[in-house]
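Re: the request from the purification team.
They wanted to know what the chain is likely to look like in 3D before they choose a buffer screen. I agreed to run a prediction and write the result into the notebook, where they can find it.
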Amino acid sequence: MRRLVLIAAIAACRQAPAGRPGSLSEAMAARFAPAAEAVFVHAQRLTALRGRGAGTDDERAAADYVATRMAEVGLVPGAPRYLQEFPLGGGISRNVIGMLPGDDDGRHLLLGAHIDHLGVKDGVVYPGADDNASGVAVLLGVAEAWRRSGFRPRHTILFVGFGAEEVGLVGSTYYVDHPARPIAQLAAMINLDMLGRPRFYDYRAMGLAKTVAGIADGPGLGLLAGGSSELLAIGRCAVAAGKIPSYAPEDFPALRDRIDAAVRDRGDFAPFAARGVPFLFFSTSEHDDYHQPTDTIDTIDRDMVRASAQAVWRTSLALDLLAARPAEHPVACPVSR
């Protein structure tokens, strides 16, 4: 019965079997949406861990925190005690893997966000509030929303906190070589990285360029998709439901090649893309505090974290209803700019 109710309530911004575009039930999405304050608290607690440098005690503490939260919401461990260790130099780092079992024993979805940041350099702490405590906080918020809803998804959903992203995507590369479920059965990978800034592409010096490009000086979510135009459309629908703009390389034809070249290998989606997995990357983009000691919790906007979490939540609902991998065809959805 719950499956029937969920399908009836959420034909979430995808093409329905009859070929007509569905629409997300706002009541359903809002009822179980990630709790804004809880998501922000996750970001606060992760930011307090001295930048979570790859392979450090602080990164290990962050991984333990994420594993504890996964256990509290009832995710099934995807590795011993949720922790997948992998070699890093002369030491180790860890991915954190929790699973929400679905009806389909094979096909699955994966939501990921990197736990680490730059740590402490020459005695200076690089807190990494936006990069990427915000993304991990959203990851946990979406996991909590699924469990709170009480619905069993069609796909098994993996929630993964990656270690050692900042030193070369080490954790995500290790994961695709040692997956919790077969990569060939992975329908889509959703990557969450830097989701807390109040303005999209928040560089003061780029104000005029943003205006010329048609980018509003306000909130917005950047979307980068690979392997599926349908996946990008689903993400756009989810963002538009929150009444904020979305921006993708496709929106800037004259700059698209440069944008693609600049970002294609700079996130944990890249090892998955190399295996042919469709991906969608959410971000409020870089900013003046990117990789600086000034990336502190006071620069994180609660409303933006909430909007990001709700967009990712809606996207996961929509993807779960797909009968197969997202396809290379567009989905009708009004996108507000």
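For the purification team: Residues 70 and 127 are 23 Å apart (CA to CA).
Please add any questions underneath this entry.
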